[in-house]
Amino acid sequence: MTFLEDGSEFGPVTEVLNLPGQDVLSIKSADGEVLIPFVRQLVPEVDIRNKKMTVIPPAISGTI
What we know:
By secondary structure, the chain is mainly beta. The chain has one helix and seven strands, in the order βββββββα.
């Protein structure tokens, strides 16, 4: 499951796309599928044990 920085639930990761430039997370959010590059700027925290990630969607972070 993914969460925003404020702790609110964002949605589950449905797929990890292994693209030539970088990996991209496909997340099923309330607004539909969201693709987020798997980089530290947009995925600052990964908790493997608890199956949680903190994400900053590009629209929120101001990056494209």
